[in-house]
Specification:
Elements (H helix, E strand, L loop, with lengths): L5 H12 L4 H16 L3 E9 L4 E8 L10 H13 L3 E4 L5 E8 L5 E8 L3 H26 L7 E2 H21 L7 E9 L2 H8 L1 H18 L5 E6 L2 E8 L2 H17 L10 E8 L5 H16 L6 E3 H6 L16
Parallel strand pairs: 6-8, 10-11
Antiparallel strand pairs: 1-2, 1-5, 3-4, 4-5, 7-9, 7-10, 8-9
Helix pairs in contact: 1-2, 2-4, 6-7, 7-8
Amino acid sequence: MYSPTIQGVLAKLIALTSERDVNALEISLAHALFELVAPGAVAIYKLEDVHSKKFALTVMEGGDVPSAQIPADLQHMLEQCVATGQRQQYVRQDGETVTLYPVSCAKNKPLAVIGVTAPEVAGFDQITGMLLQVYQNFIALINDNEQDTLTGLLNRKTFEHKVNKVVTRVQNRHQREDDALGLHYYMAIFDIDHFKLVNDRYGHLLGDEVLLLFAQQMTYSLRDHDLLFRFGGEEFVAIFECHDQQEMQMVLDRFRERVAEFEFPQVGRITVSAGYTEIMAYDVSSHIIDRADVALYYAKHHGRNRVCNYERLVAEGALENKRNEGGVELF
C-alpha cells in the first residue's frame, strides 16, 4: 500500500496553494490527488448551473478520458452527492468503483464533485478528504478575495485579470483564424439611472438594497458563463460571449427591460443604461473600458433606459472612432 511522506504532503500543499486561478487550482488538485494518494484516476465534475444541476467534466487525471456526455446514472449520483453533502459510491459499467466527494464553498454553495477511482478505498479515503478540505478552504479564500462584499459579484480588483484572459483567448483565435464557432466577446458597462436621487430620498441603506437587488437581477437574467462585476457605486460591468452584435443587443435589452419591470421595495421602479463594445485581439483593458464608457455616456445623454453599442454609434456617425486598426485609441 502506497504511503505518502510528510515531505510529499507538504510539497503538494505548497503546489496547491500557490495557484490563484480556479481552473489552474483544479488541475493542481487533480495532480496532487493522483500523485499523493496514488489512485487509478481522478475526475473533477464542476457544477456549472445550480438550478438545472448541469455538471461538466473539467479535469481528468489518469485513466481513459470519458465521453463528454455524462451517463444518466452518474448524473443521478452527482446530484445525490451535492444534495446530501456526503460522499457517494458509483459503480461504472466496467465494475470499477468511483468514490464521489462533494466540494462546497464557505457558504455551503456546491462547487463541484471529485470522482476518485482507486483499488483500496479504505487506504486513501481519510487523506483524500483532508486534501479536499484544504482545497475547499482555499477556494473560499479566493472567492472572498475576488467578490464584492455587498453584491457577491466579482470585484473591480479581479477585472484586469479576467479581461486579459479573454483578450488572450481572442488573440489565439485570431492567430489561428479560428472563426468556426463564430463567437465574439463584448464588454458592457451598466449604470443605474438617477441612483443619486435614490440615495438622497431613501438613504444609503435602501440604496445598498437596490444595488444588491440589481446584482441579483443580473445573476438571474444573464447567463451562467457571463462574467459579472461591480465596479463601485451604481456602476456594474459584464463580459459576454455571443455570436454577433445583434445577439448581444438582444441579451442586454432583455435585461434592461427586466430591470425596468422590477418593483424595488419602497423605491418602486428604476431603469438602467448600458454601453458596450466588442473586445478585439490585442485590445487593452483601459481602451475597452473607455469605448464602453463612451457608449454609456451617449445612452445617458440621449434619454437613458437604453443600450448603446460603440461600434454602431461610430458607423452611424454619432461618435468619432477612437481606435485604429491595431485596437489602440488615437489621442
